Amino acid sequence: MSQPTGPETHEVLNQAPPLVDYDLFATDRALGEGLERAGAAWARPRAAELGALLGGEPQEWGRLANVYTPVLRTHDRHGHRIDEVEFHPAWHDLMRTSVAHGLHALPWREPRAGAHAARAALFFMMTQVEAGHLCPISMTYSGVPALRAQPDVAAEWEPRLTSTRYDPRLRPAAEKTGALCGMAMTEKQGGSDVRANTTRAVALGTPGPGREYAITGHKWFCSAPMCDVFLVLAHTERGLSCFAMPRWRPDGTRNAFHIQRLKDKLGNRSNASSEVEFRGAWARMVGDEGRGVPTIIEMVNHTRLDCVIGSAAGMRAALAQALHHTRHRSAFGKRLVEHALMQNVLADLCVESEAATVAMMRLAQAYDDDAPAEERAFARLATAVVKYWVCKRQPAAVVESLECLGGNGYVEESGLPRLFRESPLNGIWEGSGNVICLDVLRAIGREPESVDAFFHEVDRGRGRDTRLDRFVDSVRDELTDFGDVEARARRIVERLALALQGSLLVRHGHPAVADAFCATRLAGDHGRAFGTLPRGIDYRTIIERAWPA
Ligand SMILES: Cc1cc2nc3c(=O)[nH]c(=O)nc-3n(C[C@H](O)[C@H](O)[C@H](O)COP(=O)(O)OP(=O)(O)OC[C@H]3O[C@@H](n4cnc5c(N)ncnc54)[C@H](O)[C@@H]3O)c2cc1C
């Protein structure tokens, strides 16, 4: 076809180059420092290798996997049920890369000090490339500790779930080189309140832990239905119990696990979230009968950690785009990043991002297998506190980052719309905001050792900044008053999170970042939008730290 003739209309000028071929690890000082502090210096070469890789071709995989979304095929051409989900090859490339790097299993394969923090760093970088595929990756990681409640079931599944070979074939797990785990709790009539579940499990012989059951019912959300095994909640006569339900029965026939349809979601579009029905599906009980929630909570806690990592990563990905864009785009005679007001916006976003990163790495460290009891108590409360707060901050931070790109940020090709659509999700699943805050109250009321451990960690920052000390004292005071505590739960949790982030930043953050955090988030010298840091904050240093020139 001939090109249009006539004079050129314009030259393309002043557009930022695409953010490609950059190193996600080398450009992120807060992440590298967090890795060292968490006792995971040994994982530096792996993080460096993945960080360099992810800045290249995987960025395109992330785009493709979200443009060419999964398709459900319920039946074959002859009318037989097949319940298969078809994905674009880019999805499989993402999955293969994450599995090969152990994002689904590193701490179970290598249970050493810092293993969860090492995995957190890898997961954090991968999420910046594509968040949707990390749903099955996260559930596989989280499923292992819950399965361990039933050692014989774990002995069968753990070697498959921790394999670093991605095998997407819909085949009996015993024939595959690796397997993935999903979770199905939520039903139409109740998600947070799983006690409202109506799915029933009937023993096929002797009842009890490890025994075989037939499960009948439905699940309203079952992300990643192409997984090989699912942890499912269902009622027996003795109450809600946990089961491991594979896609295939032991006799080599397909299990009665039927995918009704895929959800048409706001974001997370690469991931095939589904509605499923079980028509007498074969499963084995995991853990004690009637103790399904305490059993599956092991899984939920680890996925909550991943929500923190995922939300910190969503903020970082959007911030990287904003910093890159404003370094290249000029307006009114100078680059955007040189304008004082833009510096305030960017620096404020950098502070939020570093506060999320530092909290995420500290939390992941507390998940180490051999962590002392105090660390476990800290993780109990801190997981809920940090999950609530970092997930809440993500949408606001992503929107502000998007705005830094002006109109380009609103256009799909920039990648920011995908980050925006993804941003509310971590706040919803694995315990929506209110439910998480009520869980914090539960921990405070029933597990006082978790409160002691939490404040022990916070108090490590005492004496370094009077604004932090005053803030922590006021949070402690707030906890002595239990009047109307349920209505005050969000307020309490938010303040607990800020106290922890402040303590971590005054000890480990850059002094300029810690100063800005204490002035604004703790001493209240801040507006209600980003970009309202007070005078005297060292914007340039904060920006340079977050995105080295
Ligand atoms: C993309 C996606 C994928 C998902 N994948 C899975 C999956 O794989 N497996 C699975 O089991 N589930 C999955 N879920 C479901 C998710 O975990 C639930 O949506 C979530 O737990 C909330 O439950 P619900 O939707 O029933 O909302 P509800 O429980 O009805 O809650 C609605 C609102 O009420 C609030 N609320 C609830 N109780 C209280 C209370 N006591 N006091 C004050 N406020 C309250 C909640 O915080 C929330 O804001 C997925 C969800 C999404 C969006």
What layout of secondary structure does this protein have?
Blueprint: H1 29-37, H2 44-54, H3 58-67, E1 71-75, E2 81-86, H4 89-100, H5 106-109, H6 115-129, H7 134-147, H8 151-161, E3 181-184, E4 200-203, E5 212-222, E6 229-236, E7 239-246, E8 257-262, E9 274-286, H9 292-328, E10 330-331, E11 334-335, H10 340-365, H11 373-404, H12 416-422, H13 425-428, H14 433-446, H15 448-459, H16 466-480, H17 489-508, H18 511-522, H19 539-546
Helix pairs in contact: 1-10, 2-6, 3-4, 6-9, 6-10, 7-8, 7-9, 9-10, 9-11, 10-11, 10-17, 10-18, 10-19, 11-12, 11-14, 11-15, 11-17, 14-15, 14-17, 15-17, 16-17, 17-18
Bound molecules: flavin-adenine dinucleotide.
User: Structural class of the secondary elements?
Assistant: alpha+beta
Order of helix and strand elements from N to C terminus = HHHEEHHHHHEEEEEEEHEEHHHHHHHHHH
Q: Uncertain regions: pLDDT < 50 for 5+ in a row?
A: none
**Tally of strands:** 11
Oligomer: single chain
Count of DSSP helices? 19
Q: Termini separation (Å)? A: 43 Å
Question: How confident is the prediction overall: mean pLDDT?
Answer: 97
Strand content: 5-15%
- Rg, rounded, reads 24 Å
Shape, per Cα inertia axes: globular
Which hetero compounds are present in the coordinates?
Answer: flavin-adenine dinucleotide
- What composes the largest sheet? 7 strands, mixed
How much helix, percentage-wise, in residues? 40-55%
